[in-house]
Amino acid sequence: MRTNKFLILSLAGMLLTAAGCGGGDAAGDGSDSGAASSAEETAPVSAPAEPLGSASISGTVAFTGDAPARKRIRQDPECVDLNAEPVQTEAVIVNENGSLRNVFVYVKEGLEGHSFQAPSEAVVFDQRGCMYAPHVFGIQTGQTLKILNSDPLLHNIHALPKTNRGFNFGMPKKGDERERTFMTQEVMFKIKCDVHPWMGAWAGVLEHPYFAVTGDDGSFSIEGLPAGSYVLEAWHEEFGTQTLSLTVGDGEAVTGEFAFESAG
């Protein structure tokens, strides 16, 4: 797939005519941080500074059936040069242990009546090797999303929320940074790049910090919960959602298991 030259020229024109590095920026929440020579990555906070309780829920998201083969992404030559190995699709990744990666697991019900302060640490969303990293992430309302460009070429960030304010801007050079915040809970919405159409990611915005994203072992862990009854939801971009009802006591560690199956 070749880069759409007309699109790149259009974005470059917007960048030259607007002040700062983010020319095509639609109205969005948060403030710009401008370009920076380096940036320290910080992981998203997964539990409050002072947890409401001492209970925890952990488990694994399994995959049943035949695992679909991941396909090689046909990147543009300048993107291929940025990767040591061929890049593969990320929509469905079944781990070696039969679990599913990139599943967003969060407390959907049971925290009503509680309020939560936004963490001071930022969630980092990077562009590396013409791919978004991470592919799926969670963030709290009011928490800063730090958007980086680690590639020496133009990228475009086009967020498509329905209840939060969307944004669309270019990041033309390596080291560029932008910041955004979201003020309304929303699970989930797509982020895409108009320059490189294979680039895509998903974001979940929550009013609380009780969420996790499964990694290369398919596990999740949600800690610091008060005693009570909860509904957990597991979301996957291809297989939809599943819910699970659980009750936990003070200091209790409960296990919750999810399993998705391919429609084929």
Notes on the protein architecture:
The protein is mostly beta strands and 264 residues long. The protein has a single domain (5-261), classed as Cupredoxins -  blue copper proteins (Immunoglobulin-like), CATH 2.60.40.420. The protein is built from 2 helices and 17 strands. It has helices at 5-17, 77-80, and strands spanning 55-64, 104-109, 123-128, 131-133, 136-140, 145-148, 155-159, 167-171, 177-180, 186-192, 200-206, 211-213, 219-225, 228-236, 240-248, 253-255, 258-261. The strands form 4 sheets. The chain has a 5-stranded mixed sheet with strand order 5-11-10-7-8, covered by helices on one side. Strands 1, 13, 16 and 17 form a 4-stranded mixed sheet that branches. The protein has a 4-stranded antiparallel sheet with strand order 12-2-14-15, with no helix packed on it. A hairpin with a 2-residue loop joins strand 3 and strand 4 (131-133). The two termini are 28 Å apart. 36% of the residues are buried. Residues 1-48 have low confidence and may be disordered.
Spell out the key features of this protein.
single chain; 264 residues; mainly beta; Immunoglobulin-like; 5-stranded mixed β-sheet; 4-stranded mixed β-sheet; 2 helices; 6% helix; 37% strand; globular; disordered N terminus
